[in-house]
Amino acid sequence: MVENQRKGMQLVKCMNHDPENSKWGDYAPEGGCKEKMYIDEKAAKGLCWRCTSRSVGNIKGESYTVSTEN
Ligand SMILES: [Zn+2]
């Protein structure tokens, strides 16, 4: 299987794959989120649109990313 690569993007697991260490762990599905998503390569973590929409109770189909600040 070949994954499509997107320039400047990285494929990561939704940060809710590990709900205990996620700020949004409350919105993770049971057993952790299995979603993968592309985020900006400069971003540290991403929350997939499923968990995002759970957190806001409003499905927009958008993903949410968190930037690293060094
Ligand atoms: Zn998720």
Describe the structure.
The chain is of the alpha+beta class and about 70 residues long. Helices cover about 10% and strands about 25% of the residues. It contains 1 helix and 4 strands, in the order βββαβ. The strands form 2 sheets. A two-stranded antiparallel ribbon has the order 1-2. It has a two-stranded antiparallel ribbon with strand order 3-4. Bound molecules: zinc ion (ZN). Zinc ion binds next to helix 1.
What are the main properties of this structure?
single chain; 70 residues; alpha+beta; two-stranded antiparallel sheet; binds zinc ion
Share of residues in helices = 10-25%
Number of helices: 1
- Percent in strands: 25-35%
Distance between the termini: 35 Å
Q: What structural class do helix, strand and pairing data support?
A: alpha+beta
Bound molecules: zinc ion
**pLDDT averaged residue by residue:** 83
Please state how the strands of the largest beta sheet are arranged side by side: 1-2
In the residues, how many domains can be counted? 1
The SSE order reads: EEEHE
Radius of gyration, taken over Cα atoms and rounded to an integer in Å: 12 Å
The backbone outline, from C-alpha atoms, is globular
Biggest sheet descriptor: 2 strands, antiparallel
Poorly predicted sequence stretches spanning 5 or more consecutive residues: none
Number of strands: 4
